[in-house]
Amino acid sequence: EDTYKYDLNVSYQKQNMFRVSLRNQRTNHEQIILKNNDGVYVLTPSLNKTFKFQSEWPYNNSQVYLYQSLVNDILSDKERTFKEDNGYYIFSVKGDYPNNPDLKRELIYFDKKLNLKEVHVLDSEERPKIKVIFRTNDMDAKFEKNYFAVENNMNVARSNLKEEITVAKKIEDKMYPMYLPSNTHLAKEDRVTKTDGERVIMTFAGDKNFTLIEETTDIYDKMELISVYGDPVFIGETIGALTKTSATWIDNGMEFYLVFPDGDEEEILAVANSLTVVQSTGGK
Hints:
The chain is mainly beta. It has two domains: 154 residues, outer membrane lipoprotein receptor (LolB), chain A (Clam), CATH 2.50.20; 107 residues, Phosphorylase Kinase, domain 1 (2-Layer Sandwich), CATH 3.30.200.100. The protein is 10% helix and 47% strand. The chain has three helices and 20 strands. The strands form four sheets. The chain has a seven-stranded antiparallel β-sheet with strand order 12-13-14-19-18-17-16, with helices on one face. It has a six-stranded mixed β-sheet with strand order 1-2-3-4-5-15, covered by helices on one side. It has a five-stranded antiparallel β-sheet with strand order 6-7-8-9-10, covered by helices on one side. The two termini are 31 Å apart. The model has no long low-confidence stretch (mean pLDDT 92).
């Protein structure tokens, strides 16, 4: 089972301003989730690309890295339990993870000064699946006026890129889903050329039809802003966009679009998270 590790930096300001920076420890790839007065955004600085969401994030379900969300989970669970152990106050509460129903409970650790220290998210067999460790807490932090602004965050993040980013022009190794719904199979595969790149379109047919598109991406000179009706979610080791019938994400310099009108959100994520490399033999 794959394990993903991130360096996490979370900021909050009254009037519902949030900033969450996630830097993948393996790839050094950073993405930023922003909520400000204009909406909810996910920034991918390496490509100068931003998704804008029509979303209730972060209030639509549990957010393991947000203090407000965790406190709300504690207050909302009338069957919560509490214990004091090894210098910590530990709450055990129900988690609300509708896109991953196997995540059942949260263990939320506070120190004696009520600083948030750790969160463990457990599956149905009480096994930890997600663990967040909070190194520092600053409840009196002050922010510059444009700290939660999209363009400022993108400009700062891009100026901090430590190496030149390049993207592929060909799809050498395509990705294929290891999970398929019952009685569903790959019916058609096409490889097409686009301006400065390639696109592979896989059509799956059977009891549940869906289409998976993988294509090379671009690095934009001017920030690319794309509106999405959905929610930001983890897909593999990146943050993507999930709607009731589709998912969109960027991974390892490739863009993926999964259109799944016959599935629900859980099944969409099951297919998306099962992608693995299949060696290309060229052609269709």
